[in-house]
Design brief:
The protein is of the alpha+beta class. The protein has two helices and four strands, in the order βαβαββ. The protein has one domain: Ribosomal Protein S8, Chain: A, domain 1 (2-Layer Sandwich), CATH 3.30.1370.
Length: 79
Amino acid sequence: MNYKIDLQRLTHYDAIRTLEKELILSNLYKYDNIEIITGKSPELQGKLIKEVIEKYGFQWDIPPGNTGMILVNEKHMFI
């Protein structure tokens, strides 16, 4: 099952806090893939990757065809 988290139109602070909460919850519900919709802000994506995704050991990828999202695969989550 896939899960989408849309962080567009949030401040960077709110996006970071929302993503942290949502990734932990999505891991509990065992979603297969998580799409994090960020819009095309490299600054926001960098903050999300550094402050949340890598902090908790998630594996991630930014698809070349859609740079406005980050993909996280549930099989690699370590929470």
